[in-house]
Design goal:
Shape: flat
Organism: Ditylum brightwellii
Radius of gyration: 32 Å
Largest sheet: 6 strands, mixed
GO molecular function: diaminohydroxyphosphoribosylaminopyrimidine deaminase activity; RNA binding
Order of helices and strands: HEEEHEEHHHHEHEHEHHHHEHHHEHEE
Helix content: 40-55%
Number of domains: 2
Domain CRM: 338-473
Pfam families: dCMP_cyt_deam_1 (PF00383)
Keywords: RNA-binding
Length: 474
């Protein structure tokens, strides 16, 4: 028989073991919670001291340096909401003996800067939307120029948008206001748009502004015009910083009617440029950023994942397709994919018929007033003497489709691939419809193919880029 005292000791040990087993999960949870809390505090402490452009830290216990600069063509930085300029940023640990207030101010300054950039880029987007539809084939772009100082805060010096193809870009209208050449860059840009109302109804102030703006633009396109208008207008002391917020990368190429905007910014002694979206145009494609950075201008490009950057890219998405799609660049023949033979055309006609029956086919009518002189061609047409290519050329010259109409057709072709154009309002003879359709394709809607001409309608097809939606049956 077992000793009662020994038996009692064994029962006590067993009871203690049960208590420990019951308490172990609680200890485990406490340890895990403490570890997670410590990690959160460490993460908060470290992230609070990431600076924008290498601000000097005060008495840190240790620090290390890392570069946030990213190649503009590889816009894939996930480290911060913005791609920081190619300068060294300082990431500092908290000091051992105080100084927390100074580091908190530094972090607050960085967050305020990001919020400020977002605020003014949103304003630049609002400016760009004023020109959307009127700039075809160019993209819609907006610009806001802001001067910042500790004493005065932020002051908007100028705003502008690109009004139409062939005219200076958004940056120039913002610079005209900032330099004091015009009172309002938005009004100046609006003054060059084609009036839909009778110009006799315009007041004298509008006429004077239009005349003044055209004179300034004539000066700008001269060899020394940009220097004459904008030389060193932002050359300030170290207490002020001038930043230009542009929805699309400033251009750097010279094979166009106006001087490059990147070079004009350099002439104006701009301090910093924030870019909403890299220009996909092969003539630019990061070149504008490189030109400015190589001349000591700080350039920040928005990270593509930031919502405001996505708005900038969305605004020029159709322009990006036009400027990069092989079917447009190669005239509709890229690796045989866009070679539309007779069998494929029959398939597309059949598909368009089904889409029309179920109401899903996009149909767009040319709403122009028409060419009143075409009625006189009826007798000549019956005699076979009409040169329809000449007639349609005159139509395009005298009553061209509005940029808004072309923008609408172009967008629907990219989105739906098949679009039916109704041209009865612009040309009365069916024989001229096909020629007019070909002229539209070759002049405005490059990369499109005429699938069918029936009556006064033209069925167009253009494959979506980068991946077509319509697949041809074998």
């Amino acid at each position: 028989m077992q000793n009662p005292q020994k038996q009692k000791q064994q029962q006590h040990i067993k009871k203690r073991g049960n208590v420990h087993n019951q308490m172990l999960p609680q200890y485990k949870n406490i340890l895990i919670s403490s570890f997670l809390l410590w990690m959160c505090l460490l993460q908060k402490q470290s992230s609070a001291f990431v600076t924008y452009s290498g601000r000097k830290s005060i008495s840190p216990s240790f620090r290390f340096r890392t570069s946030y600069g990213t190649d503009i063509k590889n816009n894939n930085s996930n480290n911060a909401p913005f791609l920081l300029p190619t300068k060294t940023a300082v990431v500092s640990a908290a000091p051992d003996n105080g100084g927390d207030e100074e580091y908190d101010n530094e972090a607050t300054t960085t967050m305020t800067k990001i919020a400020r950039d977002t605020k003014y880029m949103k304003q630049a987007l609002d400016c760009a939307k004023l020109g959307y539809g009127s700039t075809y084939p160019n993209p819609a772009v907006g610009c806001v120029i802001v001067q910042s100082s500790e004493e005065e805060g932020d002051v908007i010096l100028g705003r502008g948008f690109h009004p139409k193809s062939g005219m200076p870009h958004a940056e120039i209208f913002a610079l005209l206001e900032a330099a004091g050449h015009v009172e309002d860059g938005i009004q100046a840009a609006s003054s060059v748009l084609v009036k839909t109302t009778n110009q006799d109804d315009d007041d004298e102030a509008e006429k004077e502004l239009s005349k003044k703006v055209h004179s300034l633009l004539q000066t700008y396109i001269q060899p020394e015009g940009a220097k004459q208008l904008f030389s060193d207008i932002f050359k300030n002391d170290d207490t002020k910083t001038t930043t230009a917020y542009v929805t699309l990368e400033p251009c750097c190429h010279t094979n166009k009617q106006t001087p490059p905007c990147a070079s004009t910014f350099l002439l104006a002694s701009i301090d910093r440029v924030v870019v909403g979206y890299r220009d996909p145009n092969p003539y630019v494609d990061g070149g504008g950023v490189s030109v400015m950075r190589s001349n000591d201008v700080t350039v920040d490009v928005l990270n593509a994942n930031v919502p405001i950057a996505q708005e900038c890219s969305n605004l020029v998405r159709y322009f990006a397709k036009r400027i990069t799609s092989p079917v447009v660049l190669n005239g509709g023949s890229s690796d045989g994919v866009e070679n539309i033979n007779g069998k494929k055309k029959r398939f597309l006609r059949s598909l368009a018929g089904r889409m029309k029956r179920d109401g899903s086919l996009v149909e767009i009518e040319w709403t122009g007033s028409g060419n009143n002189n075409l009625s006189s061609t009826t007798d000549a047409d019956e005699a076979g003497d009409i040169d329809w290519e000449k007639v349609t050329s005159e139509i395009i010259l005298n009553i061209p489709p509005s940029p808004q109409w072309v923008t609408h057709v172009d967008a629907n072709l990219w989105d739906h691939e098949l679009v039916l154009l109704r041209l009865g309002n612009i040309i009365s003879k069916k024989k001229g419809v096909k020629v007019l359709g070909e002229t539209l394709v070759n002049t405005y809607l490059k990369g499109s193919t005429i699938v069918q001409v029936v009556g006064h309608t033209v069925l167009l097809y253009r494959p979506k880029f980068p991946k077509p939606v319509i697949t041809f049956e074998e």
